[in-house]
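The freezer alarm interrupted the setup, so I double-checked each line after restarting. Inputs confirmed:
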Amino acid sequence: MFVSLLLRAAVVAAAPSIVERGSSAITVSKHMPQDAASSILAPFVSFSIEFSSFPDFAGNKSRPNKFSNQLLDNLADLQGVKPYIRVGGNTQDFALYDPNLKTQINGTVVLSESADYPSIISIGPSFFEAYETWPGTKFSHGFNLGKNTTEAMDTLIATVPLACKALSNGRLAHWELGNEPDLFKGKVRPSTWLESDYVGEWLSKSRIIKRQLSQACPGMVTKGAYKYLAPSFAGTGNKLDPVKTWEVGLDTDHDIGMNSMHNYMGGADSPGVTLAHTLMNHTAVVQSVAHHVGVMKDLQEKGLTKDVPYILGEMNSLYHQGKPGLSNSFGAALWGVDFNLYCASQNIRRTHMHQGTDYRYASWQPVQTTKTTIGTKPPYYGNAMVAAMLRGREPDAVQIVNLPTGPETDAAYAAYVSGKLARLAVINMQEYNYTSDAGSASRPSATYQFHLPEVSAKSLSVQRLLANGTDAITGITWDGWSYNYELQGGAPVRLTNVTAGQSVQVDSEGWVALELPHSSAAILNIS
Ligand SMILES: *[C@@H]1O[C@H](CO)[C@@H](O)[C@H](O)[C@H]1NC(C)=O
Ligand SMILES: *[C@@H]1O[C@H](CO)[C@@H](O)[C@H](O)[C@H]1NC(C)=O
Ligand SMILES: *[C@@H]1O[C@H](CO)[C@@H](O)[C@H](O)[C@H]1NC(C)=O
Ligand SMILES: *[C@@H]1O[C@H](CO)[C@@H](O)[C@H](O)[C@H]1NC(C)=O
Ligand SMILES: *[C@@H]1O[C@H](CO)[C@@H](O)[C@H](O)[C@H]1NC(C)=O
Ligand SMILES: *[C@@H]1O[C@H](CO)[C@@H](O)[C@H](O)[C@H]1NC(C)=O
Ligand SMILES: *[C@@H]1O[C@H](CO)[C@@H](O)[C@H](O)[C@H]1NC(C)=O
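Predicted 3D structure, all chains:
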């Protein structure tokens, strides 16, 4: 049934003249519109890994995690640059250093805090070996700002040399000091804590880091190399205002490399959260990103962050590590494509999707546990499509434009590379539950029409993001490729039972039609 549906798409594609040219056709110019967003940073597709889960994801020198490295290499092949890895999250502000610890980490889960990660944490010297297991990867290391004790100060002083040595040889992207410090207010800091208090503390502790660096790794305090992700605010609860934080002098030392903020669509336990309402909904994506667009506008008007790119240093579908059945389904992969491409169209120049062991929204589970099977999870396939859409490396400038579509279950984007139209992406987010709907009617599909008046190519290749349905948690493919662990440890394997290698014809007037099964997405390659 699935295969015949795709064949139907192929038949339509071969005879575009029979497709009605509805008023919903989208005209796309070959040349980049004047108001297009700034070019994305390469790499755009990047990850944030929970500090306490980093040894699981990366391993150590004697036991590097090759599966994770393979998945990162696949994305490097697709987007042109290997994803950057931010190591941080809630647990970075719990971690204390124990020089005698023989393992990478000793974590104790405190159920009243969270069942998903340890809240009492020591790290040993071998924690830092994890930075040396993935060749050609750049990282940011997250220091503890949350704890303000003698032990925390000792940790800062002792771990700067370990971190800088592990991150030498080109492995450092940025430093980070504190995760979501806006949420410290009223929790690990008094409820009277202000933006200026945070900035004062951040400046004094970052200067300690710099002092330690200049002793242990003097090559890493040069102007170009010494940079932070900050302020890394959660942005929820209106506790500290990011704009005010910049105003009161966050960048006094001119060492902020990325204006990093965090984002989630909602909470895993919030009432009314569903795939159709919360994730597979372009309106909801636009609303979620609007907060950042507002902050950026305000910062720009006040001239506060001129040369500091705005990024999401931690983001994923639903906070509290995702919701089973939603965040780990193919539907969440489709959300990830829409969300990330929309960010790229709104001057958010890189996104780090947050990962952790046993997290429901994770793109992959790096080790076998009693809760979760090791393997590549559906969101990873969304990462693959985003990487393919944003492909490019300097000096190419990749810019994304959000194209107008009708229903909130549709989204479409154009990618311009060095000013020329290179690719179109279309996402259909209509639910199709194959476990319940299959066996009834055949899977519905939708046809999208584009008018490309200046494009000379007569045939455009199609790459599809496919699964049996919205609720699929396995059997997902990108352009016919499986990256599943069970096949070749995450290395790409071309499957023969899914449609790949299709093309669609552009007629003499520049019209082209693309059919998508409900709950699927595709890229049309122009050049
Ligand atoms: C390296 O990882 C292996 C496998 O998890 C573990 O058994 C070993 O203790 C680790 N080595 C160090 C030095 O932490
Ligand atoms: C690990 O942490 C727990 C709880 O803090 C502690 O009781 C235990 O002794 C620690 N183990 C090691 C090997 O340090
Ligand atoms: C943090 O610790 C320092 C040194 O003990 C102290 O001066 C400062 O007041 C503390 N800050 C907060 C917010 O507790
Ligand atoms: C999509 O999201 C918007 C904004 O949150 C909401 O108003 C709308 O009801 C959602 N659509 C569905 C089908 O739930
Ligand atoms: C898919 O399944 C979800 C969860 O059971 C349900 O809420 C939704 O209505 C279903 N969608 C369709 C199109 O059947
Ligand atoms: C997907 O559907 C095909 C055809 O019905 C079936 O053979 C295959 O087992 C399904 N895959 C999964 C992962 O359910
Ligand atoms: C294609 O084959 C793979 C590997 O055997 C299987 O997991 C998947 O469900 C199949 N997909 C379809 C659509 O039949």
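Quick read of the result. Residues 484 and 495 are 11 Å apart (CA to CA).
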